[in-house]
């Protein structure tokens, strides 16, 4: 038996493995951005796509990185074990994402989901290492445990970033890829491998494909898979932009004033009719709250607090109902208004839309008659 050499790695295959996992991390985070904004059925689809994309990329990186190692002399793998390791990574990642996005318990979901996902990735790593035929592997405890801890930490970070919409996808993907690559080589360094003489190995496994050819085939298949998912995500982006542009056009052509505000009352969007009706510019409107338009003289804040409490508890007597009340322009002049407030979810946050109709002319007509 010969002790496997652990130097003279193939730099080209190492770089190829890193590029694969970088592309997988980037694509997975891009797909994860769709989860919060989708319907429940589509959320499951995006979770499955994001988790599968990441786990397939990690598995491919791991397999190519194994080919970059100088051992054993003739690389021959047990196919069933390899695909079992891939299945473990995919299933574990999907479960981790499901726990993160659907679990209802109080314990931090990204910790539990990330731990399960990290253990599955570690299991994939060491199981696929055992797929090398005729190789005996003995692991050193410290790097063995360290690689598992890194896998768990990276998984926790990935799940957290999958719900954090403000992160920069490219830089986040780069950090995740570096950590996953480091996890792989720490895991490899934990193993002391011995294998038979080349002549014995070649006799039992005579078919030997060049490592570069095999790596390129795996990389090509993975890139096709990732490119399909990324292309689909970009098509969805384009469709959403078109829908957003259409909705923006409908808002701007509406005769009624429409304002979108968050749970604290801050205006985050308005249409042209709102700016014209209240006498503010759009820029000025986005620095105000709904309470500035409805209760500008509410010194003690009681009226604003009452409305805020109704919004917080999603009071059915308010939401979706037409309510007549006074509204105020920029010059603090009062006018009668019909206000309808509706609530909706946007990127996991509670938002509200107020449709405000000026009743001044209507009131005058009634008085005249």
UniProtKB/TrEMBL annotation:
Gene3D superfamilies: PAS domain. Keywords: Membrane, Transmembrane, Transmembrane helix. GO terms for cellular component: membrane. PROSITE patterns: MHYT, PAS. Residues 243-314 form the PAS domain. It comes from the Bacteria. Residues 9-194 form the MHYT domain. The chain crosses the membrane at residues 12-32, 53-73, 79-103, 110-132, 144-162, 169-191, 211-232. NCBIfam families: sensory_box. This is PAS domain-containing protein. The lineage of its organism: Bacteria, Bacillati, Bacillota, Bacilli, Bacillales.
């Amino acid at each position: 038996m010969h002790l496997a050499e652990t130097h003279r790695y193939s730099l080209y295959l190492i770089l190829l493995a890193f590029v694969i996992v970088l592309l997988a991390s980037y694509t997975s985070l891009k797909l994860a951005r769709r989860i919060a904004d989708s319907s429940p059925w589509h959320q499951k689809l995006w979770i499955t796509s994001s988790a599968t994309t990441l786990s397939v990329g990690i598995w491919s990186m791991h397999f190519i990185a194994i080919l970059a190692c100088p051992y054993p002399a003739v690389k021959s793998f047990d196919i069933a074990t390899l695909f079992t390791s891939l299945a473990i990574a995919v299933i574990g990642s999907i479960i981790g994402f499901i726990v993160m996005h659907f679990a209802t318990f109080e314990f931090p979901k990204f910790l539990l989901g990330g731990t399960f996902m990290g253990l599955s990735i570690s299991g994939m790593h060491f199981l696929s290492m055992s797929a090398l035929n005729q190789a005996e592997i003995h692991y050193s405890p410290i790097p063995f445990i360290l690689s598992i801890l890194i896998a768990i930490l990276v998984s926790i970070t990935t799940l957290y970033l999958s719900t954090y919409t403000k992160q920069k996808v490219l830089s986040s993907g780069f950090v995740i890829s570096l950590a996953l690559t480091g996890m792989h080589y720490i895991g490899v360094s934990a193993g002391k491998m011995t294998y038979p003489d080349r002549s014995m190995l070649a006799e039992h496994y005579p078919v030997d494909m060049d490592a570069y050819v095999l790596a390129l085939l795996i990389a090509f298949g993975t890139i096709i898979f990732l490119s399909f998912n990324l292309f689909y995500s970009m098509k969805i982006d384009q469709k959403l932009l078109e829908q957003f542009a259409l909705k923006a056009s409908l808002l701007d052509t509406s005769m009624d004033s429409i304002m979108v505000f968050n749970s604290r009352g801050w205006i985050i969007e308005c249409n042209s009719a709102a700016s014209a009706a209240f006498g503010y510019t759009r820029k000025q409107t986005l620095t105000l709250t709904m309470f500035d338009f409805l209760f500008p003289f509410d010194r003690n804040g009681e009226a604003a607090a009452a409305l805020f409490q109704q919004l917080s508890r999603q009071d059915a007597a308010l939401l979706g109902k037409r309510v007549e009340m006074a509204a105020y322009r920029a010059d603090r002049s009062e006018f009668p208004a019909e206000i309808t407030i509706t609530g909706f979810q946007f990127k996991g946050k509670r938002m509200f839309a107020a449709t405000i109709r000026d009743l001044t002319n209507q009131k005058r007509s009634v008085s005249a008659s």
